Amino acid sequence: MLITSGLLVAGQLALAVPSYPDYNAQTYMSDLHALANDDEFVPFKEHLERVRNARYSDYANGLVANEEEFKVMQQHILYMYEGVQSPADVTSFLLDGGYGDCIAIKEQPTYFHLGLDGVADPPKLTNPERSGGKPPGDASYVDSPLTAGDKDRFGNPISCPEGFIPFSRLTLEKFTTFQTLSDAFKKVPNLGRREGVSLRGDNPIHEEDWEATHLYAHAAQSVNNYGGNSWLNLWNPVGDFSISQQWYTGGSGCNLQTVEGGWQACPTCWGTKEAVLFIYWTNHDYNLTGCTTKQIFGCYNTDCVGFHQTNNKWFLGKHFSRYSTTDGGQYGFEMQWKLYNGNWWLWLKGSGSYEAIGYYPTSIYNGGQMSKQATNIDYGGEVARLSGHVWPQMGSGQKADKGFGKAAYQNTIYYIPKDESGGSGVWAKLTEFEFTPKCFTVDVVNAPNGGSWGTYFYFGGPGASSC
Fold first, then answer.
1. What is the pTM of this model?
2. Which residues of 368-381 are buried (b: 16+ CB within 10 A; e: fewer)?
3. How deeply is 3 buried, as exposed, middle or buried, from its count of CB atoms within 10 A (0-12, 13-18, 19+)?
4. Three-state SS for 383?
5. Residue-wise pLDDT tens digits, 390-422
6. Which letter does DSSP use for residue 62 in this model?
């Protein structure tokens, strides 16, 4: 979630040594992957039957607000799968404690419900004018786990064939950990309560989980653009919610719209301590207080109608093959968003070539700014915390001045100036923004001073009880 300088920022208090909670003892998402932890394997067709026949009484002790909201969640899941022609033929596998279902490209929710007229052809990539010079250090690209040739514990290949894409299974076990479906779609999902808060019959007592304040160390430029690019150094920070990402934004106030992507570490969100690949969009300022709408305002990955995936090798919301370590191997991936012919295309590069992953049709922005172009580019780190917890680590957990091998970074940062296939990118001229430099910092080097890295920055910090 992108928060402007007009919102609350945590005070400049003395830095305390953070003590992070033991996530093995937490049960925030105890039901998120309940089906996947059973001894049985649940085929896709059987999953749909279970959702269709589910009753509120089976979930009334969870967090869902009431029976009406339960039915909204149930109907959303069934709605999302209406395009699947033959559920019995869908192959599935387990990964990171959840199911991946191989859905035909033209049977995805976005294709079916938006009535797309065929699958769009991706544009050619936009590349910058390369600069010379030696980089600060060497790093390697990571791979998607779907390319490893592995099988799950039931013997199912962890991959999807050509013509099908890996779709993260939507479950009542996941959605009923939220009070409402709208809560589940927020950038920082509102779980409704923390462990230990009692529920009383049909009238559960909910306690706000996440603090409203988010902290950032990021770098931005106000410029009309059609997307952009960066290479993201990949880490596993400790704490509640920590992101390294790209934002492309347009509009303001309740009309703020974004397309976003990067990596995110959030054990309560994904059911794993490892950072995962994510994308996110909003057409209505994240549905924040004062901008509330009952319409779909955005979501992660493929949790709602929005993103149409075309690539079978990358799995949104899942872990990577390797992660960076302090003074050890440095790993990452490259991401490019590109608005072309009415679609915001996502490209990813692992150890192989850049690959087109899929796209957001601009119709989801309802004629707003992001249906035309973005007006800002933004890159960097964001953290949030559960009430009463310490601020999490950002990036590697070390500040920007520690440099290569210690601090996290993004490099090869440029924006796309035209709606065209191919074309030349323009090196970003970024300005630093540090909300709480006692905890989190960012150091930018703009091209041409960045050598072969072009425009780049280091960022991060250790977190603390107070920032």
1. 0.89
2. bbbbebbbbbbbbb
3. middle
4. strand
5. 999 999 999 999 999 999 999 999 999 999 999
6. S
